[in-house]
Design brief:
The protein has about 210 residues and is mainly β. Strands 1, 4, 5, 8, 9 and 10 form a six-stranded mixed beta sheet that branches. The chain is about 10% helix and about 30% strand. The two termini are about 25 Å apart. A hairpin with a 4-residue loop joins strand 6 and strand 7.
């Protein structure tokens, strides 16, 4: 489905770090805006847009926490040039949610929505990668609020801005459109192995049709 995903399975044949990155021992806190207050009785995760059945699918926090739990060992590459290697992320695979709420056949992209209206667009093939995960845990422990609790998206083969903190939903789209940082000059795809940092680097087909 969608477009071909980035080269997430070829890291063994490449240097340990993507070009321009440096190894980070700790986990810096990086985000735009304040940390939201988590209110479990008001929290809801939605999948909407071009769903296969035309309906919106919703889970409250208790229901989402009861979904199948998976773990993924994956790196985190921040566009600010630090990389954190070999972290264990626990949560709900994006593929699990896609199985529960399938997209319409015409869907090519998704928009991931988070608190304060923050958004990040992804090709459907990147979203449905086997290692894309809606993380609730890192290293077996719950995420802290500063790092995205109760839910953050991790897309290991793309720069970390493609995985927002404090996620609240996913919109299925039949055409691409730019998210928050993509509208502000960041690359529409964001492959760290190709060092796709900024929109001026985009080639035909990387961004939405004008």
């Amino acid at each position: 489905m969608g477009q071909p995903e980035s080269r997430e399975h070829h890291e063994s044949a490449q240097p340990e770090l993507p070009p321009g990155q440096r190894l980070q021992r700790g986990w810096p806190v990086t985000h735009y805006g304040p940390v939201p207050k988590f209110k479990p009785d008001r929290w809801e995760f939605r999948i909407f847009g071009a769903t296969a059945d035309g309906d919106k699918h919703c889970w409250n926090h208790e229901q989402f926490s009861a979904l199948p739990f998976s773990t993924v060992e994956a790196d985190l590459h921040c566009v600010t040039k630090f990389s954190m290697l070999g972290a264990e992320w626990g949560g709900v695979l994006a593929r699990t949610l896609v199985e529960l709420a399938p997209p319409a056949p015409s869907v090519t992209h998704v928009m991931v929505w988070a608190e304060y209206g923050f958004s990040a667009n992804l090709r459907l093939a990147d979203f449905t990668s086997e290692r894309t995960i809606f993380a609730t845990h890192k290293g077996g422990e719950l995420l802290t609020a500063e790092h995205g609790f109760p839910l953050r998206l991790v897309v290991p083969h793309l720069y970390a801005w493609k995985g927002p903190k404090w996620v609240r939903g996913v919109e299925y789209m039949t055409a691409d459109r730019r998210g928050f940082w993509e509208e502000r000059g960041y690359h529409n795809v964001g492959d760290p192995w190709r060092e796709q940092r900024y929109s001026y680097q985009e080639e035909p087909g990387d961004g939405p049709e004008l």
